[in-house]
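[Solved] Which block belongs to which protein?

Original post:
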Amino acid sequence: MGVYRAAIVTESGQNLIAQALANETPLIFTSAKTSSYSYPVGTNVPALTGLQDVVQSVMPFDSKVLGGNVAQVSVRFDNDGVDQTYRIETIGLYAKIEGGTETLFSVTQATTPDEMPVQSDVSPSAYIYNIQHTVQNASQITLTVNPAGTATVQDIMDIESPEFDDSGTVEGISSFPSFLETMKSKMNFFQFFRNLKAGLQFVLHAGQIVNNCVTDNAGLPLSAAQGKVLKDLYTQLYSDLNTTNNNLGNINSRLDTSLSSSVLDYALTLPEGMHTVRFPGDSYTGADIPNSYYRYSCATIIVRSKGKIVTVLLYGISTKAPLAVNSYDGGKWKGWDQYVTKDDLTKSIDFRGNAKTFKVRSGTNGLKNIYLDIEDESGNSCSLAFLSDGENAVKLMLNNKVIWTK
């Protein structure tokens, strides 16, 4: 802040005081002006009737008597409209008697002048001066100021309902920190609201928080509650994945040693799930397979209930070998069902040479079992049996081994 000498009442000011006392008329302070001119030492200040190099002119906003003999007048200068920085070297206070002409009442000179900056929307500036004058019998003088310089009811209403640029766009405000940088002491009231709206656009508020996962707007933040939901789902996903891996571990169980018991007995020991068994060696030819003619390389075992409901599927060595299926339910195995392709049957009766013999024979119990026998020159035999003694079935045998039953 600048430093200023005591105000000097001019000769014209003394005349105004005398008239106010004599005529009991109000002393009206009409304006205050700043000057960039520094009057040199020796200047006859009381004789001045005006200021040199006037820069700004405003109306006082308050006047009052202090202690019975001090007349105080308050004025405010801001940088609104200032296009060039200047020093406030001198302040002149103007007054008049009611019905009279305005004249220079007092002069206040700076020892360390304030500097008025150029107009700035970002950082407006203002100075308030309380100019005091020692006046004998000041309490007997009615002091007033120009009503245009005081706050009116409308001024107060304008503050209650301020009009300002509410576009939300202010040059230089592109983030909340940049808004905070514009908040300066003594900043313009209306400019503050303009900047505030621009700055609040960069502040997170409840209406922006997303409480679901149905938006692709990358600019919206996620609520903490929804974040917790996602974390729980993520945790559950890992748990389910571990469970799945454990189940897959059951599926990948292998039997890499020679079977000491049947594959059916082994199937009854497995837990619920699907299991793949690879038989050791070239193939599995255990006594529990459906037909010793075929050799099996692996099995799929499906367990719905351990030791109670089980299905076993045997796969042959080649892609055209039969598939055999057996199911366990109600405390017993249902028996093997074999599935062969047309090519399997064709290969089964494909002799290397010409048929040597063809004969029809019956079993030992009359005509209940009928056999059609074919033998080639190499001694290979193929028989088609129609059985009705003890079981009703049709069987195809190759070298006395049953390869197909219906």
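(Second protein starts here: sequence line, then its structure tokens.)
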Amino acid sequence: MPPRDTSPPPYAEDTWLDVGHAFLEERLFAPVLVLDRFFSDERDLEAERARSFLRVRNALRVHQRGTPAYALDVRASLRLPGLNRRLERLRLVIVGQAEDVVNGFYPELTGAAPLGPNQQGAANAELRYGAWDGLYSHVDLGAGLLLELPVGAFGRVRYRASVPLGRWFLGRMALAGFWRTDTRLGTSLDASVERPLGSIALLRLAGTSRLTQRSRGIEWGSELAGLRALGPRTAVSLAASVEGATDGPAEVDRYRVYARLRRDLYRRWIFYELEPEVAWPWEAERGGRFREYAITFRLEVQLQGSEPPVEPPAELPEPRDPPHLRPSGAQP
């Protein structure tokens, strides 16, 4: 008998749609995804990770006013492969203090939030369901708890899309509608235009906006950033950003210019960062805008799960010989 084929059966999702999606990821989106993954910011515009992922980030910010500020940022995205095929799109997402469940305004804009008390998002736990996947777009639903006192709740629906703009540009956007116990109804829009410069550099223009029942009108921000890999273990970025609100006391709340150096430390899952910055915030107490210098130190540890093993199908029993071919005295 020929050897039995023990290779796993093809998944129902291995269709022309998935082949096209994989081609876009490998050929067109690869430079963008590689740099995004290296900096590990988990921006809302990024594609979901294919495997479970845990990131623990410690940050110490030293500035010229007051005492140094410390923050612990934990993010876990856990797939649930033990469920049946219908529910395997579920994902448990746990986010720590430095990010916000609805595209934290400062964190999602700059990739590294200032550590002041007004910019830290509440820790939360979200059960996320991928409702629809297309070649260029994705829809997910989420609901969960805000881990603060008193404990809050939230729900949201989010649409994300990535579209090639000609041969050299990639456009990405994320539109979300949500409800939270602290901000009530709201909506947010994030968008970016990215230009890969070969396989080791990237130029990005990004913008974000948010409107809730308790926000200062439309809270908005924009950033221009350049990212470059300096080898397999090191990358740098240089960026300038502006942030404000339509109902704020000033047209622009804050200008900021910063540089960021990121490198792995002894292992591919331990990273450190240095981020010097200069900012020009506006404060009513000072009667206007002033210049402020700061530097942030970060130490990050990552853990990533492996794909669940695929069990081969059960081996079928070998058929018996017909009666006229059985040896004399053989059992039927």
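Accepted answer:
You had them paired correctly. Confirming on the second one: DSSP finds three helices and 15 strands in the chain.
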